[in-house]
Specification:
9 helices, single chain, alpha+beta, about 50% helix, Glutaredoxin, globular, 4-stranded mixed beta sheet
Length: about 230
């Protein structure tokens, strides 16, 4: 059963939601039958990466609040992240446009490394204070999970995987997604936000039960006859 997750690496609740969903998945007895597909999303598509600004300044300007208020809200998010074992260092975070990070994720999906790249991108942005719009940084992150550095460089220095990102964004618009994280179970049941693990588990069980009814396992019927067997001759 497929679970599609629209997410943006600059979204703090997406990383928290990832952890809560992973906890639910670890408790789900049919986890090996779940296919997870990460989808690209951009909360601030027109934002220009600015290493000279703090994330507090960007939040204050975007929300029309004071710097102190922005720090207060960020501290609350830090506490939420800590509850699921994540460490956020907003004081080190470099405000960045996430389009190139999304392209790296698309490449990783194509190569079978998407789950790993989502984790390293989130950690790079929220914990390590790395610039996730910087090509050398993204090349390093790709190499860290096993991607070929030359291929990552080629992708990021050209227009490769732009269409795939745009396709995900277009699909999100068609579905009516207005915020992330957004989870779509078997293309039927949608869940928005970083829900509690218990909620995710209930949804997994409900969705999988319905999916299993619609996709019953095929029973293999074997009719025995004369055969040649390995090592035994005919």
């Amino acid at each position: 059963m497929k679970v599609e997750i629209w997410s943006d690496v600059i979204c703090p609740f997406c990383y928290i939601g990832k952890r809560k969903f992973e906890t639910a998945l670890s408790q789900f007895k049919h986890s090996d039958s779940i296919e997870i597909v990460w989808k690209s999303y951009q909360l601030a598509p027109d934002f220009k990466t600015d290493p000279n600004k703090s994330v507090y300044q960007v939040l204050a300007e975007h929300k029309g609040m004071s710097l102190e208020q922005a720090k207060g809200i960020s501290d609350q998010v830090v506490s939420m992240a800590k509850q699921v074992g994540l460490v956020y260092h907003f004081e080190k975070t470099i405000p960045a446009n996430s389009f190139n990070a999304n392209r790296l994720s698309q490449l990783a999906k194509h190569r079978g490394f998407q789950e790993a790249v989502e984790e390293v991108l989130f950690k790079a942005y929220f914990t390590d204070g790395r610039n996730i719009d910087d090509i050398p940084t993204l090349i390093d992150l790709g190499k860290e999970i096993g991607l070929d550095s030359t291929e990552v460089k080629t992708v990021l220095e050209t227009n490769l995987y732009m269409d795939e990102v745009e396709q995900d964004l277009s699909e999100a618009s068609q579905i009516g997604i207005r915020g992330v994280p957004y989870f779509l179970f078997d293309s039927k049941l949608a869940v928005s936000g970083a829900q509690e693990s218990a909620t995710f588990l209930q949804i997994l069980e409900k969705s999988f039960a319905e999916w299993e009814k619609e996709n019953p396992k095929q029973t293999l019927v074997a009719i025995e006859g004369q055969t040649c067997k390995v090592g035994e001759g005919c």
